[in-house]
Design brief:
α4 (176-186) packs across α5, α8 packs antiparallel against α11 (308-333) and α12 (353-364) packs across α13 (369-375). The strands form 4 sheets. Strands 1, 2, 3, 4, 5, 16, 17 and 18 form an 8-stranded mixed sheet that branches. This protein has a 5-stranded parallel sheet with strand order 11-12-13-14-15. With 452 residues, the protein is α/β, with parallel strands linked by helices. It contains 14 helices and 18 strands.
Length: 452
């Protein structure tokens, strides 16, 4: 055989095998005999079937109404639940564990931890703008493993910003239109106004952003939920209020279509109630994805005695956390849009595991498991005006879903029993998402500075 013929034959074999490999990847997936939670809040469907073709859900409903494709990869989910992938709509991907330090180089570890825990969508609510925009770009292009990323870019704060490294500062109202135009060009998903902006500045920011078709979400700490802030034209709050919310306050927020992101996990972190028992650090979503030195440092933090002044602050934080727990129920029952977020990372609030704990806190606060799940699926998609694209298990929606060994509709903690994560129609290798000291570069965090 001549060299030319050999080369042609080799090329033909490569082509055939390549097509075969792609064909295997393109096979539809059929999940059968499952309990189906649609994410919208409907009652679970027993003995259901979900068919995924490519990146799309082709069918989701009673098994009797489905026709299984002959070439499908069939997954028997008897006794298990299939549900939409979860969303954490308030995180900060710069990493670490304490909410202050910075670990930009370790981003893949945090993205892996979130996927491992079944979080297929996230919103970064304040970061180094070019860095987070690049992460969003590369994940969307399929070159970066991680949940789908929404972001606000850098926060907008006063001339004396609380987080100087994460904010664009505004000393004059005349800066605002240019900042908003720059954010629009960057295609941020929302703009975040931060703690030290005056009400006048928030009004001008909301007005300028509205003209460009961009919503403003804010965090004004203890003032979150205040009617005077609602009146500035914002679209929502990045945290639940920790202040008492009267019926008039709630109605005023509803009249202005205000949304709230929950972040109960972080108010609990400040109250330190989770540190009474540090056994939660052995929870798989933490232990499987976290460097050992993080756990060592956190255990030391939990064990360190507080000064009398620190105890007073913690007691006040407990009062505020208790109020936030009351508010999530009141706001939900009033019909406002409530979506899940954790504000991870903070002490005891981990990327990934924190979202499951957030769901547990919401149920503890009085929501039903299905209501809490909806806040992390369909309602999270509504927040991004994307409920026709993702957030529920319906035909035509993006194939981001989980299979869990249990019934989260009855026991919310069963969301922790994930066996399979499917993102954009692809079954992920969850074992490859675990922390591996042999493969991890071992980057150490950079101590951060907080300027309240």
């Amino acid at each position: 055989m001549t060299l030319l013929k050999r080369m042609l034959l080799l090329g033909l074999l490569v082509c055939l095998f390549g097509r075969g490999s792609r064909a295997a990847e393109d096979k539809p997936i059929a999940i059968v005999h499952a309990r189906l939670i649609d994410g919208i809040g409907g009652p679970p469907v027993e003995n259901a079937t979900v068919i995924v073709r490519g990146r799309t859900v082709e069918y989701a409903g009673p098994g009797g109404g489905a026709t299984i494709p002959n070439d499908a990869q069939v997954i028997d989910a008897t006794g298990k639940t299939v549900m939409p992938g979860l969303s954490d709509m308030h995180v900060h991907l710069q990493g670490a564990w304490d909410g202050i330090s910075v670990d930009l180089l370790g981003y893949q570890r945090y993205l892996n931890a979130m996927l491992y825990a079944g979080i297929t969508t996230l919103t970064d609510t304040g970061n180094y703008q070019p860095w987070i925009l690049q992460l969003r770009q590369e994940q969307a292009a399929g070159r970066l493993v991680g949940p789908r990323i929404y972001c606000v870019g850098a926060m907008i704060d006063s001339a004396d910003p609380a987080w100087p490294d994460l904010a664009y500062t505004v000393a004059s109202r005349y800066q605002i239109p240019e900042i908003v135009k720059r954010d629009k060009a960057a295609k941020v998903d929302m703009i975040k106004g931060y703690s030290n902006l005056s009400e006048h500045m928030l009004h001008w920011l909301s007005e300028a952003a509205g003209k460009e078709g961009i919503r403003v979400v804010i965090d004004q700490w203890e003032r979150n939920g205040s009617p005077d802030l609602v009146a500035t034209g914002i679209s929502g709050f990045a945290h639940l209020p920790t202040r008492k919310m009267s019926a008039d306050d709630i109605q005023f927020a509803k009249d202005h279509n205000i949304f709230f992101i929950t972040t109960l996990a972080v108010t609990e972190s400040f109250a330190r109630t989770r540190f009474k028992q540090v056994g939660f650090l052995k929870e798989p979503y933490i232990a499987d994805t976290t460097p050992p030195w993080f756990l060592t440092e956190l255990a030391a933090y939990a064990a360190k005695p507080q000064t009398d002044e620190e105890k007073k602050v913690t007691e006040q934080n407990l009062v505020e956390h208790t109020e936030a727990m009351k508010n999530v129920k009141k706001l939900h029952d009033a019909g406002l849009l409530i979506v899940t977020g954790t504000d991870a990372p903070y002490p005891g609030v981990f990327q990934g595991e924190g979202l499951h704990h957030e769901l547990e806190l919401m149920v503890e606060a009085g929501l039903t498991p299905l209501e809490a799940i909806r806040a992390s699926t369909y309602d999270a998609a509504r927040l991004m005006n994307a409920e026709q694209e993702w957030g529920s298990l319906q035909a035509g929606r993006r194939a981001m879903l989980l299979i869990v060994a249990g019934n989260p509709a009855e026991h919310i903690s069963d969301t922790r029993k994930i066996e399979t994560v499917i993102q954009d129609g692809k079954v992920l290798d969850r074992a490859a998402l675990k922390y591996d000291a042999k493969k991890d570069p071992g980057f150490r965090v950079l101590p951060g500075l907080f300027n309240p």
